[in-house]
Every structure is written in structure tokens, then in C-alpha cells.
Amino acid sequence: MNNTESGRNKMEKTMERAGNFLPRVDESAGSPNAVDNRVVSLTAPASIAAEQYRSLYYRLERMRELRPLKVVGVTSAMPGEGKTVTTVNLALAAARANPERRILLIDADLRRGQVAQVLGIRGRPGLAELLSGECEVRDLVRRFHATRMAVITAGATPEEPTQALASARMKQFLKLVRDHFDEVYLDLPPTLPFADASILGHQADGLLMVVRANQSQAKTVNQAVEQLGGAPVIGCVLNGAESSATPYLKDYYQK
């Protein structure tokens, strides 16, 4: 058996144990008070914003009736458009809607991973340490305290993030999470500044492009889609819109 096969078998065994960890809770997974207020799927589940994330999730569910969508990546054209908050809320909406499913949230932004900060959990070890061979999957995966959602953070920033994400080990890892989780959500780096999103985008079943209201420009979004080079973009998510943009919801909740 060569080293590649040996490494694959080892990762497969540790992934199987990680996939079966539920409902065990990792005590390092933080407390509700540490969660960013923008994680409305958890902090304000009855809010208009949380309802929008649920609506987004059920749109994906309808799409799943027509095509495979096990691995969903979320990106944006540029930094600061809200992709991480969108990914976290979407994954939490999935975990709450289907508690029997195994949901995995992966922070694949090795340059500026923010999932750990947003959820108030320990950031290391993470995906970067797995890809460098410093740890195994069982050392990374932890269940978020209030749900059955599993989380893998980004970890430390490697010297060459693009090379790490393009590695055979990353491809092997994504193949294995497909086998051991029902839904996987990837928080990807922004598309235009780096090649990372394009690399991982082609390994996902679908990509969502986060567009920030009054900030993202149509030209920039179009350039980002072009740079993804045929990766399966399945839609855009409008982020940061005023509640007045959806008066029907506002009126309903105020009655």
C-alpha cells in the first residue's frame, strides 16, 4: 500500500468516527453569550432576518429535488459583503430544520477565517492544520452547543493558502465529508482577490454569491461569476437590505 492510500484510509477512519460523534458536545464549543448577534438563526430565531435565512434554506431544499446539492459553497465578489454570516446562518437554519440530518459547516477561508469568531468557539486546530498534516479530523470536528451542527474552523493562516486548498488532501477531505455528512456548507474566500473560491467552487455542487445592498456593484459581481470559470453558481443572496425592502413581512410581524 502506498503512502497516498495509507493516508486516505487513515483519514477515512477518523472521518467515520467524527461523523458519528453526535450528540456528544465538545466543551470548547463556546456559550450562547459568545455568539455574534448577527447569527440571527440562533440569537433571534423569530426575527424577520432569521425567517429570510429559513426561506433561503427551503429554496435550496426545493432545488435538491432536481439536482444533487450536498456540498454548497458561499462566496462574494469582494470582502466585507457578509458571506460568513450568511453561511453560518444558512447552516444553522439547516440544522434546525432537519435535526436528524448530519450538517457540517466548514470555514474554508484560510486567509481570513471568521467562523470561529462569529460563533464564539475555539479557532484552532482547524482546516489548515488538517491539510498540513498536523492533526486528524477527529481533532477538528466539534458540535456547536445549541444544535446538532458540526463545525470545522479555518485554523491558522498557512503560508500558501491557495496551494493548501488545491492539494490532493483537500480533495480527499471533501470527498470524505460527502460520504459522512448529509449537508456540507463551505464558507469560501471572496472570489475576485484570490483563486481559492474558484478552486473549491468546482468541487462543490452549488455556489451562492452574496451581494451586499448599496455596496456590491453589478460589474463586480459579473466579474466574480466569470472568474469562477463555470463553477455551478446557483443564485445570489442579497445581504444588508433594509427591512423596508420587505414591507409585507414587516407589516405581518407588527400585527
Automatic annotation (TrEMBL):
<dbReference type="InterPro" id="IPR005702">
    <property type="entry name" value="Wzc-like_C"/>
</dbReference>
<keyword id="KW-0808">Transferase</keyword>
<feature type="domain" description="AAA">
    <location>
        <begin position="70"/>
        <end position="224"/>
    </location>
</feature>
<dbReference type="InterPro" id="IPR027417">
    <property type="entry name" value="P-loop_NTPase"/>
</dbReference>
<dbReference type="GO" id="GO:0005524">
    <property type="term" value="F:ATP binding"/>
</dbReference>
<dbReference type="InterPro" id="IPR050445">
    <property type="entry name" value="Bact_polysacc_biosynth/exp"/>
</dbReference>
<dbReference type="GO" id="GO:0004713">
    <property type="term" value="F:protein tyrosine kinase activity"/>
</dbReference>
<keyword id="KW-0829">Tyrosine-protein kinase</keyword>
<keyword id="KW-0547">Nucleotide-binding</keyword>
<keyword id="KW-0418">Kinase</keyword>
<protein>
    <submittedName>
        <fullName>Protein tyrosine kinase</fullName>
    </submittedName>
</protein>
<dbReference type="InterPro" id="IPR025669">
    <property type="entry name" value="AAA_dom"/>
</dbReference>
<keyword id="KW-0067">ATP-binding</keyword>
<dbReference type="Pfam" id="PF13614">
    <property type="entry name" value="AAA_31"/>
</dbReference>
